[in-house]
Predict the 3D structure of the following.
Amino acid sequence: MELISGAIMPGFEKPARAEIIKARVESEKLGPILPSAEHDLGAAKRVHAEDFIDFLPAVWPMWAAEGRSGTAMPFSWPTRGLRDDVRPRHIDGLLGFYSFDAGANFVAGTWSAIKSSYDVALSAAELVKAGERAAFALCRPPGHHAGRAFMGGYCFINNAAVAAQWFRDQGAAKVALLDIDYHHGNGTQQIFYERSDVLVVNLHGDPMVEYPFFLGHADENGAGEGEGFNHNYPLPFGTAWEGWSEAFEDGCAKVAAYAPDVLLVSLGVDTFEKDPISQFKLVSGDYPKIGRRIAKLGLPTLFVMEGGYAVDEVGVNAVGVLTGFEEG
Ligand code: FKS
Ligand code: ZN
């Protein structure tokens, strides 16, 4: 469940999304479709705080220990002027301490979903490392809103950031991360903001008017060592292919100029005209064009699934990027 416009409702980020995408991968005969292998949490702790990662499997047991069922979600946060240097003991305090919004919620199966999504990302990364031209990590839940020690926006572990760091640890000198989800990847940006070894390029709804609101402006270019290695393209409501592709072209040029060893794509298809929570106007025919352009970069590429809530078309659109890539 999630809070939507003041009401608690079934969440947009639901299991059918992944099932529909998988069915489309099958009907388009992309593949093979491989199961994930189990991974320990070491790779997660390379980009996330250890205490944060250790908290995630504890949430539901702590919630249930209060005699509660339903959906575990935070309602109190350490905002400006409050103490964020003292970790509360109560589950309600901990949920707020490790969140930036009320949008990363738990039921009994959530930790196992988070863990499997993480396993999928790393298993797909291993295929690319082993020499595949590309792999698609059909992750669910998504990851790009999760930062070093915070969750939010349906995201818990930042799958793309974990994979990027994993490639670095496997010997890749430079990794680029292109985030084309409709929403700004605030977690990914935060994780790599002071680093020059991971280039982060983000196209998204303008945070002046769109979630996640508090990061993603054009003047955020990185800091310290990372100065010049973060690029944001905030775009207005109503952006269609013409405006989107212009920013995308610029972002792809930044990736090409960086000449990374590997490319990660945070693939959201909530840029679609019929997406129920988004305000861009891409059409289904645009997604293969995106894939073809990414292919032209000529890089080993790992696609990591993020958002996309027009469930009827989520398979066609996400897999459209992949088939476009295969052609390009
Ligand atoms: C809509 C309120 C905003 C939260 C939207 C979360 C978007 C998540 C995502 C991800 F890729 F992470 F899944 N609700 N009126 O699409 O960015
Ligand atoms: Zn999104």
